[in-house]
Specification:
By secondary structure, this protein is mainly alpha-helical. It is built from 14 helices and two strands; from the N terminus they run H-H-H-H-H-H-H-H-E-E-H-H-H-H-H-H. It is globular.
Length: 374
């Protein structure tokens, strides 16, 4: 069982052993209770709206701009699954079940998990598919529910077919272009499929290596968003290495077999360790939960000094800013104490789900090479 470490008793022991606390576990439960209150009756979650806005608190709740229900639903399901809750077991099984049913009901004939009706923000559709595919594969891997196998296999087949044949990655439209950000979520889905015992063509993974070789800098220590970005002022930054893409690239390298002592991995982790989570100030906001979430996974895999330094900065920051009272208790604000880099796009739901996944890092995955060997 690739997910034994998420079981309730084991999960708590691993949290304490790996740098979590009773407080981080309480924060996870508060956050999951918040998500249960934000689920729509048909099973989905949304980035850009809340199911009940009658409470005045929701006038300041900061929804996101993106209409991307597939991504929102996938992220919420990952938070429940990451804490060991499935549609078969635990106190949140109804929420997980109707969320999974919503994904299955909206899966297209080609295996895609998004549709023009549920995801009008086109740039979010492929993100949403990758995220929701991870959720389907994890739910199948954790329960072996035969009803989930075929939808999970179809979602993975869509990813395989959507890969750009030359560049080896994914972007906003199937088979068209590549970038490191979208590609990372699709590789995570392929890895979740492998952990669940589903078939993933070796040549698909080889294509991802090809993309990473193209997107790397400094012998694999740093990564760029898109080496093919146009040279105009609004796009050319995509050619430069940055922290979020370096974290995502390093995590992808781990999924594809790099070990923690690989020189590029060590240099990259040193770069992340020099940029631990911090809020910054209103005039110079440093808050970027997308970077924090990805780098937390990389540093957990590195263990040792890298992980200890990262966790010492990440854990108190995350705990400090969770709301603990009122109708929004259990959530994280996208704009307070300073605005997050993607607050405008993802809003409170995005912020809350990624913070929960960060607090589940202590047990959500074992070291990657151990898992894939098993």
């Amino acid at each position: 069982d690739a997910y034994w470490h998420r079981q309730p008793g084991t999960r708590k022991d691993l949290a304490l052993k790996n740098g979590g606390t009773h407080e981080t576990e309480q924060a996870v439960e508060r956050g999951l209770a918040y998500l249960a209150r934000q689920q729509f009756a048909d099973g989905h979650w949304a980035l850009n709206e809340f199911p009940d806005t009658s409470d005045p608190a929701y006038q300041q709740a900061s929804p996101g701009e993106m209409d991307a229900d597939t991504a929102a639903t996938g992220l919420a399901l990952l938070a429940y699954l990451g804490a060991g809750y499935t549609h078969k077991d635990g106190q949140w099984q109804r929420q997980v079940r109707i969320g999974l049913n919503w994904l299955r009901a909206h899966q297209g004939p080609d295996g895609s998990l998004y549709s023009p009706d549920t995801d009008t923000t086109q740039s979010a559709r492929m993100y949403g598919h990758g995220i929701a595919a991870i959720a389907l594969c994890e739910a199948y891997g954790m329960t072996r529910d035969p009803e989930l196998r075929e939808p999970a296999e179809r979602a993975i087949r869509f990813i395989v077919d959507a890969q750009n044949p030359q560049l080896g990655g994914w972007r906003y439209v199937p088979r068209l272009e590549s970038d490191t950000s979208v590609s990372g979520w699709h590789l995570m889905a392929l890895t979740s499929a492998r952990l669940a015992g589903l078939d993933v063509p070796p040549e698909t993974l080889e294509g991802v290596r090809r993309w990473l070789d193209f997107a790397e800098k400094q012998d694999g220590a740093k990564y760029v968003y898109n080496p093919n970005a146009s040279n105009d002022p609004s796009q050319k930054h995509g050619r430069d290495p940055n922290l979020p893409m370096t974290a995502e690239g390093l995590l992808m390298r781990l999924y594809l077999g790099w070990e923690s002592n690989e020189p590029g991995m060590v240099s990259g982790a040193d770069y992340l360790a020099a940029n631990v989570p911090q809020m910054g100030t209103e005039g110079d906001a440093q808050r970027d939960v997308y970077y924090w979430y990805l780098a937390s996974q990389v540093m957990f895999q590195m263990q040792g000094d890298h992980w200890n330094k990262w966790n010492a900065a990440m854990r108190p920051l995350v705990l400090e800013d969770q709301l603990t009272q009122g109708p929004l208790a259990g959530s994280w604000s996208p704009t307070e104490p300073v605005v997050d880099r993607w607050a405008h796009a993802g809003g409170r739901h995005y912020q809350t789900t990624l913070h929960l996944l960060m607090l589940e890092v202590y047990y959500r995955y074992l070291p990657i090479y151990d898992m894939l060997d098993d």
